[in-house]
Amino acid sequence: MRYLLLLGLAAFSAVSAEKKDPPCVCPLIWKPVCGSDGQTYPSECILNCVKYALKKDIKVAYQGICKHVTFAAEEEQEVEGWKGPCECPRALHRVCGSDGNTYSNPCTLNCAKHERKSDLVQVHEGPCSPDEHEFEDPCECDNKFDPVCGTGEVTYRNLCHLECATFTTSPGVEVDYEGECLAETVLLEENHCACPRVLHRVCGSDGNTYSNPCTLDCAKHEGKPDLVQVHEGPCDPNDHDFEDPCECDNKFEPVCGTDHITYSNLCHLECAAFTTSPGVEVKYEGECHAEIMEQHQILKSCICTKMYKPVCGTDGHTYPNLCVLKCRISSKPGLKLAHVGKCGIGLLAVETKEVRNPCACFRNYVPVCGSDGKTYGNPCMLNCAAQTKVPGLKLVHKGRCQRSDVEQF
After folding, report:
1. pLDDT at position 339, please?
2. Nearest by Cα to 361 from 243, 256, 258, 253
3. In terms of CATH architecture, what is 183-241?
């Protein structure tokens, strides 16, 4: 490894000397990659330089040190300042570690600490003396592997090692949860969202498990606008079978809904009735007229803050706060507060005047036509109606009821 690295740097220097503008200029950082020749290179840039200078067909096999390579102590000294998966300056500022080894600077000591996941600490500045190889571990803990994850997203071998770190290298660190730290809880660094490293898994409507609600919201704003939380906890394998809640074409045959919203066609309105706007019906065909403002005039008299403290109405709709719900109640008699917090996402409760929630169905819109000539959002909704409101109701065919179906019934 030592000779290959020096050869690579020599080749790079030779190439640099031949031309004014060298084909590659590499920063002296340690971001190791394993080449297809089984050798570890300090960075991908160095690998490419060696490839160019030696005219070798070398590719990056994977990120990190080649797994079969081991370094002797004297070899490590040849690449002083390049240790671990960290980026360290090649500054010589020797420090002595609690393992009795001398490190080129504090950064390389920290790299060694995280690479080994050990409790290595700096004992003093300057090189270790020969008798310092007998240092004892600053923590009197056994090595029983009963891992805990600390609030700094570092896995400790057991609780004793974490408590020791609290009084040595990581003041204030506490137990986040038992077990090894999970990769899922890493901050989202590739986008504009930053979430706490808190593990509170939730299942998204795309069938993926997110480490907490914040990471789900980040995904929603980073390219998944229709993403919603289905339930707390990880997704079940069957959750990957979620379908698009609306199977509608974009043909423009507008209808005006009772919520005074124009829908591009009847299918989109019926989909909204089972997803975002429970209870909405067709007011008339065509686009909504500007002069019809009854509901908006009522809501205009309500002044509410934009504070987000969601509440659930008895219509199954989530309102941003109690004030907005009360405004809605003024235009929708019979509507009441069901409970504080969001309504159950992903499931639609089917209500009757006498029975509340006799069954619950997913809000996927796969319309079917019932024997009463009405279109139901999906087979489950039809079965619920058969159990509660329309005894003897049966499925006639898949898809929305047509005018011929209505005339027949």
Report:
1. 78
2. 243
3. 2-Layer Sandwich (3.30)
